[in-house]
Amino acid sequence: MPPPPPTGDLVEPFRRDGLTRLPAAFPAADADAMAQAVWSALARMHGIRADERATWPAGEARGLALRSDGTFRTIGTDRVEAAIAELVPDRPPPPHDDWGGPLVTFPSPGPWRVPATGWHLDEPVRGAPAYRLLLKWLAYLGPVAAGGGGTVALAGSHRLVAGWAASAPPDDPGRSAGVRDAVFGRSPWFDRLRHGSADDRRDDVLRTGEVVGGVPVRVVELTGRPGDVVFLHPHVLHAAAPNTADHPRLMVTGGLYVPR
C-alpha cells in the first residue's frame, strides 16, 4: 500500500488553536464544478443568479438540498482523508458521499466587525443522544478574503471548553449556550467581544487576543482559496460573520460523526 499523501504539520496547530488548514486539499477545478452546482441550486430554488446581482439577497442563503446527493463528494481526496487520519487517529471511515452542505453568504452593506452574537458550538460538548461529532471541516469552493463572510472562530476556546467539562456535573450535556456563557464569563476580554462598541470589535482589536486561564485565545477569520480545507475541533466556539466583499462566500461545512 502506498504511503498517504503528505499533509504538512496539521496536528500542532490543531491541538493549540483547535483549527488547522490544509491548502490545496482538493483540485480547484473540482471546487469550481461544485460552486456551479450551488449556483444551479440557488437559481432553481430561489431565483438567485450569478450574473444578475439584483437577484442576490443580503446575508445567508438557506434551504439548498445538496447535502446527501453526492454533490460534494470530490472534497474527499486522498489528501483530505490522510489529514482526517492524522487529526483523528481512532475514527470511523470518512463519509463517502456526504461531505457536508453549502454555506452561502451574500454581500451586505456596512463595515466589517467581529460579530457580537451568534457564537456557538455545533453539538453539545458531551455529544448528542445518538452521535458525537469528532471533527468539523470547512471546504472552500470560491475565494474568501478578509471581510468576505468567512466563519470566525475563537482559537484556543476548545481548551477552555475542556476545562468546563472537567468541572461540570457529569449529567450536564454541555449545550452550546450554557458552555459559551461559562467560557465567556471568565474574562473581561469576552465582555468586550459580546457587549463592546463597534470600535471595540474592530478586527485589529480582537485578533490580538488575550490569555484566559493560561490559554491564549484570539479571533481568527477563516479565509481561504478554492480547494482549501480548514479543520476545526468540535469544541471551538465560532460564529457567522458579515460579508463585505463584492461576491458571495461559497463554502461547504461537514463533519465526522460517530454513532453512540
Please tell me about this protein's structure.
The chain has helices at residues 11-17, 28-46, 78-87, 157-167, 176-184, 188-195, 203-206; strands at 19-22, 59-61, 101-106, 131-140, 152-155, 210-212, 215-221, 229-232, 238-239, 249-259. The model has no long low-confidence stretch (mean pLDDT 90). The protein is globular and about 50 Å long. α4 packs across α5. It has a single domain, classed as Jelly Rolls (Sandwich), CATH 2.60.120. By secondary structure, the chain is an alpha+beta fold.
Q: Which properties best describe this structure?
A:
four-stranded antiparallel sheet, single chain, 7 helices, 26% helix, Jelly Rolls, 260 residues
Radius of gyration: 18 Å
Order of helices and strands: HEHEHEEEHHHHEEEEE
List segments where confidence is low: pLDDT < 50 over at least 5 consecutive residues: none
Instruction: Indicate the CATH topology.
Output: Jelly Rolls
Helix coverage percent: 25-40%
Shape: globular
Residue-averaged pLDDT: 90
CATH architectural group: Sandwich
- Major sheet: arrangement of strands: 1-8-4-10-3-2
**Major sheet:** 6 strands, antiparallel
CATH C-level class: Mainly Beta
Tally the helices: what do you get? 7
Beginning-to-end CA distance, first to last residue = 31 Å
Q: Helix- and strand-based class?
A: alpha+beta
